[in-house]
Design a protein that fits this description.
2 copies of one chain form a homodimer. Chain A has 415 residues and is α/β, with parallel strands linked by helices. Chain A folds into 3 domains: 168 residues, MoaB/Mog-like domain (Molybdenum Cofactor Biosythetic Enzyme, Chain A, 3-Layer(aba) Sandwich); 81 residues, 2-Layer Sandwich (Alpha-Beta Plaits); 157 residues, Maf protein (Alpha-Beta Complex), CATH 3.90.950.20. In chain A, 40% of the residues lie in helices and 26% in strands. In chain A, the strands form 4 sheets. The first copy, chain A, has a 6-stranded mixed β-sheet, with helices on both faces. The first copy, chain A, has a 5-stranded mixed β-sheet with strand order 14-13-15-16-17, with helices on both faces. In chain A, a hairpin with a 2-residue loop joins strand 10 and strand 11. In chain A, helix 2 runs parallel beside helix 7, helix 3 crosses helix 4 and helix 10 packs parallel to helix 15. The longest helix of chain A is centred in the C-terminal third of the chain and has 25 residues. The radius of gyration of chain A is 26 Å and the shape is globular. Chain A starts with a strand and ends with a helix. The interface between A and B is large, with 82 and 84 residues.
Chain lengths: 415, 415
C-alpha cells in the first residue's frame, strides 16, 4: 500500500536538524508490508503544511506526518490539519484527564500550555502518548488514513510502535518490498564485489546494493513486487551463494551491530574483556557498553589519553614511549598487556593512534593507528593507516579493534 | 530566492540511509541568501524522478538534486533528467579526458563503467568532480537553474562549495532568512519559556523556536524577509534581552557543543580533567575527546564498568559498595576522589547509574544516576533521575556531568 511521509519543521527544512524520523517510519512501514512512496519536508507555515497534507492524501492511502504538535506558538500542525480536513479543534476530556494525571504522578504542576494539548481536531481518534504530552492524531476520510505524530523521536517511535501499528489495516496483497541486510566487516567493497559478481546477473530477481559505512560494508538484498513468501525463498537461496564466498566476514543480519555480535561471542565463550584507549578516548568502550547486558563480558578499562596515564595507569614503560613513540606496536602491546594485568580480564584490546587533525609526522601521518590484543596466547598488534578525518579515524579504529577481536574469537572456534 | 532540494535513492525513501545531504545543502543555501522552500525524496524510479524534477522546476527558481549519478544499474538520475528536459546523453570529451587522467594518476586502469560518467545531457554545463568520478550537471532553462550532484556526501559537499557556489547568481534583494542559535544546558524548556515569555510578542520581528535535545534546549532566533543587516541588528537586540534572563545557562552560540564549551573553559583556566565512568561506559570521555586538541586539558580516566574495577582501579572501598550500592552518592564521590588521586588531575568527574533496561529496583529505578566531582575544594555529588531509555539515560548522564563541571568553572569565575 502506497504510503507518504511528511516531516514538518523549519529546523528540518533549513538543515538545522537531521531528519531521522522519516527513516524510522519508512523502516517500520516496510516491515509490515507498506511501501513508502513519497517523502516530503515542509516548514512551519500553516498554508504549506495544509497544501502538503491535501496533496499527499490524494497520492497515498496512508499519510503519516511528524512534528509541530507541541504546545508552543511555532507548532502549527493541528491548525493545518483543521484547515485541510475542514474541522474545528475541540477539547478531548479523556486526554486532558490523562495529561493531568501524568503531571500529578511526576508531582509537577500542569502548565496552562499543556492543557492545549487536549485540543484536537473534531472527530479524530487520539493516540494516547505515554512518553510525552502531545497525543497523536488519526483521521480517516474518503478511504485515506491520515496520522500526525509528535516530532520528538523517542515519543514518535513509541507512538508508532505501540499505538498506531495496532490500528493499521493489514497491507493488502502480497506484492511488497522484501529485503534482508547482511553486515560485513574487515573486507572492502571491491573485494566483496569480485567475490560475488558471478551471482549478480540481470535476470537474478534478488538485487544487491553495497552500502559501505564505518563498520564495514552492508549488503542489502532486495526483491520487489513479488509475494513475500516467494521473495523470502529467493533471498534465502541467494544468501546461501553469497555466504559461500564471504561467510567469515558476515558478522550479523539486519540491524544488529558489530558490538552486539562481538558481545554475543564473548558471552558464549565466557571471555571477559577489558580495553585501553588512547586516540579513541572511550569510543570503543562506549560502543561495547551501548549493548544492554554488556556487563556480562565487559569489565571496563582505561582511557589513557596522555602519556602519563599510559605510564601510571597501565604501567607502560616510559622508555618504550620515548624510544618508539606513543603510537607504535610496542606501546600498543604494552597497553594491552598492562590492561589485562590490572583488570584480570581474559582478553584486552588497546588502541593508540593519531586521530588528527594535528599530530602527524612524515613517518607517522594522521590516521596511523596501532591496535593491540592480549590473550592467554600472548600479545599481538596490527597497524592501520586511516585517513585525514578525526571522527572517521576514531570510528575506524574502534571498529578495527572489534573486528580483530571477532576474528580471534571465530578462529578459536574453528580449532 | 525559492529553492527546492530533491534527494534521490531507494535507500533514502526506505529509511536505510539517513539523509544528511539535504541538511548540508539547506545550510549552504541559507548562508548565501537562498531560501530552501521544498524538500522531497524519491526512489530509484525514472518516472518518479522525472515527475519530481518537472514539478519542482515549476515551483522554484533553483532546484538541486543529489544521488543516482553513479555508474551502476540503479543510478537513473541522468536518464530522468534527459526525459524531464527532453535531451539526449552525449559524450563530453573534456570530462572523459579528465576522468582518464584521474585513473592514470592513481595508476589504476579505467573500468568501462567509469567512461559512462562522461555521458551527460546535451547542452548541460558539467561540474568537474575532483573528489570522485561522477561530474555534476547544471541545466538552465526558462529562468530555472537545475543542478544534479552525486549522492556521496564528501563529493557532493565539495562540488557544492567549490564548483556550484561560484556559478550561482547572487540572491536577489536583501530579503533573506537570518538566524542565530543559542545553546543552553541545565535548564528545562518550560522554565526558559517562563523567563523569556515577556519578549515573545506577536509584533516582535525575531521569532524564537525552542529545540530540546540531549544536551539541553537550543533557542533558534529567526528573522525572515528582512535585509540581512537589519535582521542581524534585531537579533542582537533580542539576544541581549534573553541573555539578561538566562545568561549562565547559555554555553555556546551556533553549532558549538557543550564539550567544546567546557573544553575552552578548562583550557583557559588551566584545569586538567580526568573521568571515571560506570553506566556511561566511556561516553563522557568519548565526548570530551571528540574535540581536537582536548589533550590540552583532558588526561584520561577509567571506565569502571564492574564493581571489581571500581575497587581495583579506583580504590573505591568495597564496604562502600556493599553498604550503599554501586549507584550511590558515596560511591560516586569515592570514584571521583580515586580518579583525581591516580591521575593527578585538578578536577575529576565520576558517573555511576542504572542505564537500564534492567538493574532497577524500587528504591533505585532505572535512570537513577549519581554524578560526582572532586576538586581542590573537596568532593560533591548530585543525583539525577532520568527515564527508561538506556541511550537517553547515558547521554543525559554525560551531559549532566559536563554541565556540573561547567557550572563549577563559571562559578569560580564569578569569585
Amino acid at each position: 500500500m502506497k504510503t507518504a511521509i511528511l516531516t514538518i519543521g523549519d529546523e528540518l527544512l533549513y538543515g538545522q536538524t537531521i531528519d531521522t524520523n522519516s527513516a524510522f517510519l519508512a523502516r517500520g512501514l516496510i516491515s509490515i508490508g507498506y511501501e513508502p512512496a513519497y517523502k516530503e519536508t515542509v516548514g512551519d507555515v500553516i498554508e504549506a503544511v495544509e497544501e502538503s497534507i491535501i496533496k499527499l492524501c490524494h497520492r497515498a492511502k496512508l499519510v503519516i506526518a511528524t512534528g509541530g504538535l507541541g504546545p508552543t506558538h511555532d507548532d502549527i500542525t493541528k491548525k493545518a490539519i483543521c484547515r485541510a480536513f475542514k474541522r474545528n479543534l475541540v477539547l478531548y476530556d479523556d486526554i486532558l484527564k490523562f495529561i493531568g494525571e501524568r503531571y500529578a504522578r511526576q508531582k509537577r504542576e500542569m502548565p496552562a500550555a499543556a492543557q492545549s494539548q487536549a485540543l484536537l481536531p473534531q472527530g479524530c481518534r487520539p493516540l494516547q502518548n505515554n512518553w510525552g504530552t502531545a497525543p497523536g492524531i488519526v483521521i480517516e476520510e474518503r478511504g485515506v488514513m491520515f496520522v500526525a505524530l509528535p516530532g520528538v523521536p523517542f515519543e514518535m517511535e513509541n507512538l508508532f510502535n505501540h499505538q498506531l501499528k495496532p490500528l493499521l489495516p493489514p497491507a493488502p496483497g502480497g506484492k511488497v518490498i522484501t529485503f534482508k541486510q547482511l553486515r560485513t566487516s574487515g573486507i572492502v567493497e571491491s573485494v566483496i564485489y569480485e567475490k560475488v559478481r558471478e551471482f549478480l546477473g540481470p535476470k537474478e530477481p534478488v538485487k544487491v546494493a553495497f552500502l559501505p559505512g564505518y563498520s564495514g560494508v552492508d549488503l542489502r538484498l532486495t526483491v520487489k513486487d513479488t509475494p513475500r513468501s516467494e521473495a523470502e525463498k529467493q533471498i534465502r537461496e541467494f544468501e546461501a551463494k553469497i555466504r559461500g564466498q564471504i561467510e567469515k566476514y558476515i558478522y550479523a543480519e539486519g540491524e544488529a551491530t558489530l558490538s552486539e555480535a562481538v558481545g554475543n561471542l564473548l558471552r558464549e565463550k565466557k571471555v571477559k574483556l577489558a580495553t585501553a584507549e588512547s586516540c579513541t578516548g572511550g569510543l570503543l568502550s562506549k560502543i561495547l557498553t551501548d549493548i544492554p547486558g554488556s556487563s556480562d563480558y565487559y569489565l571496563g578499562g582505561v582511557v589513557s589519553y596522555s602519556n602519563e596515564s599510559k605510564i601510571e595507569l597501565l604501567n607502560v614503560p616510559a622508555e618504550l614511549i620515548e624510544k618508539f613513540g606513543a603510537v607504535s606496536s610496542e606501546v600498543a602491546e604494552a597497553m594491552a598487556l598492562g590492561t589485562r594485568k590490572i583488570t584480570h580480564a581474559d582478553f584486552a584490546l588497546s588502541i593508540t593512534g593519531i586521530a588528527g587533525p594535528t599530530g602527524g609526522s612524515e613517518g607517522k601521518p594522521v590516521g596511523t593507528t596501532w591496535i593491540g590484543m592480549a590473550t592467554d596466547d600472548g600479545v599481538s598488534s596490527k597497524q592501520h593507516i586511516f585517513g585525514a578525518d578525526r571522527e572517521v579515524n576514531r570510528m575506524r579504529a574502534a571498529v578495527g579493534a572489534l573486528n580483530m577481536l571477532r576474528m580471534k574469537l571465530i578462529a578459536d572456534e574453528a580449532l
